[in-house]
Design goal:
about 325 residues; mainly alpha; Tyrosyl-Transfer RNA Synthetase; binds tryptophanyl-5'AMP; single chain; two-stranded parallel ribbon; 2 domains; Rossmann fold
């Protein structure tokens, strides 16, 4: 049995990228592994500073985690800030994380460009907090989307450094994981880049059928293939990538052939895509409503998850202190 840990920031509603990059793997892994799935609200503070929205967003992600199929009877589901030991591990790992390597990470450079007035230290040390999230449980498998690959590489680097520094084999190097083997990048509907909450190019797990259809029908395409077997533009390729995730093989083949023979009508492709996305989301959408109304269940589940997570966390901190040389009189 492997130890698995992964999280999602509490930036509000979850989208298809979160689902296929992360949560669908969480769901598949939870029965055969010891799993820790959390809501990374500390991480959210590196970009979002709206204290009025934070709590509601944490609750929202929590509800959607459960609605998407995470089972608190088998997986430990908790809120990151309910485990204060993480802050200590984060602090200790920060002592051997270097400015140069942190500044070079793509996500730091990206965020620094997007929010030049808020290039805070939390943003810089974001991968260190992620490492703490994983290492506090000694997790080996970390189900994530492709965009998190570099952060996992950083965690492995911190593990090697810690073990070398203290001459121990204490932490284990974790790996980014996906059931389909290749890490997934779900593209957005705007013709470029990945689906993301702040990009306004996504479909949310709570979107109703009409909204899904409207979003998909207005997705960016091009003027159509000009000759047989021509290369797809990025925008059209993106629609096919989503089709490959949500549709049956027959459907995918049908539209690929239509594209190759220049007979494709993007309107038909989009209609099918919207229908298949809706099929995937429908049961989750219904569950969101049901779980959202059950506050007692949420309170109980969060409490139980935090207790379980803290059992590990307290232990890890005790051992790390010992290794580092922090001892009681
Ligand atoms: P976040 O909140 O940006 O995204 C949560 C998860 O969803 C995946 N994801 C995607 N996968 C495929 N295609 C997309 N378009 C897409 N958009 C998002 C992400 O890869 C991620 O798996 N730093 C993390 C949260 C985190 C974490 C951790 C993850 C905090 N500590 C420890 C693993 C381990 C993040 O910002 O994810």
């Amino acid at each position: 049995m492997e130890i698995v840990a992964s999280g999602i920031r509490s930036t509000g509603k979850l989208h298809l990228g979160n689902y296929f990059g992360a949560i669908s793997n969480f769901v598949k892994m939870q029965h055969k592994n010891k799993c820790y799935f959390f809501i990374a609200d500390y991480h959210t503070l590196t970009t979002h500073h709206n204290n009025k929205e934070l709590h509601d967003n944490v609750r929202r992600v929590f509800v959607e985690y459960l609605a998407a199929g995470l089972d608190p009877e088998v997986a430990n589901i908790y809120i990151q800030s309910d485990v204060p030991e993480l802050c200590e591990l984060y602090l200790l790992l920060n002592m051997s994380a270097y400015l140069g390597e942190l500044e070079r990470t793509t996500s730091f450079k990206d965020k620094a460009r997007k929010q030049p007035d808020n290039v805070n230290a939390g943003l810089l040390t974001y991968p260190v907090l992620m490492a703490a999230d994983i290492l506090i449980h000694h997790a080996h498998k970390v189900p994530v989307g492709k965009d998190q690959e570099q952060n996992l590489e950083m965690t492995r680097k911190f593990v090697r450094r810690f073990n070398n520094m203290y001459g121990v084999k204490y932490f284990r190097e974790p790996v980014a994981y996906n059931f389909g083997e290749e890490l997934v990048k779900v593209p957005g509907l705007d013709g470029k880049g990945k689906m993301g909450k702040s990009e306004n190019n996504g479909i949310f797990l709570s979107d109703d059928e009409k909204t899904i259809r409207k979003k998909v029908m207005s997705a960016v395409t091009d003027s159509g293939p000009q000759k047989p077997n021509s290369k797809m533009s990025e925008a059209v390729q993106n629609l096919f990538t989503i089709l490959e995730i949500v549709s049956t093989n027959d459907t995918i083949e049908y539209f690929k052939e239509k594209y190759a023979s220049c007979e494709i009508r993007y309107g038909d492709l989009k209609k099918q895509l919207a229908e298949d996305i809706n099929k995937t989301i429908e049961p989750i959408r219904e569950k969101i409503k049901e779980i959202d109304a059950n506050n007692d269940f949420l309170i109980k589940t969060a409490k139980k998850g935090a207790e379980k997570a803290r059992e590990n966390a307290v232990n890890t901190i005790k051992e790390v202190r010992e290794i580092i040389g922090i001892r009681n009189f």
